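Review form for a predicted model. The reviewer records the input and the model, then writes brief findings.
Reviewer: anonymous (R2)
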Amino acid sequence: MRLPAFPETKRNNFLQVTERCALDFRYSPDAGIPPFVRAQGLVMDGMVFLIGFTIMSLGSLAIYATGSKEPPSRHHTLLHASVPFIAATAYLAMAFGIGTLVKLDGSATYLARYLDWSVTTPILLAGLVLVAFHERGSTGEVGGYLTAIIVLDVLMIVTGLISSLAIVPVGKWVWYLWSCVAFAGVLYLLWVPLRARAFERGQALGSAYVKNVGFLTVIWFLYPIVFLVGPEGLKIVTDLTTVWAILIMDVVAKVVYAFYAANNVEKALRERGSGYEHDRVHA
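Model under review:
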């Protein structure tokens, strides 16, 4: 059976639509960015990612080399050294463009970044929970807090990713707000019940816990703000600007924080003498 001929007018219309779609993919409808400029931007992003890979790799080695290898601080050294190592892996993947999705509006979503956060932030939270209980408390109690805070944390990151990928504006901001709700849940657990548990272990450990949580809270508050003003949100700043901003925040939250937290915990343990004391409950 012979197929009917494709009318010339329809064929021309089809070619015009195809060409228009190609132009929409190659050019940003907001800024009219041509392909070679976008390519230069991707090259600049790649250079920043390689810088991030280098800093995170060296940071991981430095944290392990200088950290305590003896209990009760050994597990903190291992946890904090693993965080920038995982981040280095993500930055290397982003440098090669692995998992990078460039959408029609020219904005990019870096899947490796969200995968990194979904692994490293639970590790950081686990370190805080361990400080709060300081090897005390029942397995069920510690496990319950760990499960609750990690589930909220991962949900925060996953819903943030969904917001980044959402095309419909209403959907984007609904998922963004839901991610912020999960973030609020994480902060509640850190600042209310876990803070109380930390001070039950002594004033020194309680103060160390508050310092560490305060440091991370300030840094983590900046991430949703950068998302909001960046290409994934309101598009107020460029992709390269957000890449630099997140790199700086990542270094502070994963490398600088590791040294800061270790110093606070070690100081608290020294104040307690041997590092172990009888339970003290403070009103």
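Findings: The chain is about 75% helix and 0% strand.
Further findings: Residues 72 and 275 are 8 Å apart (CA to CA).
Recommendation: see findings above.
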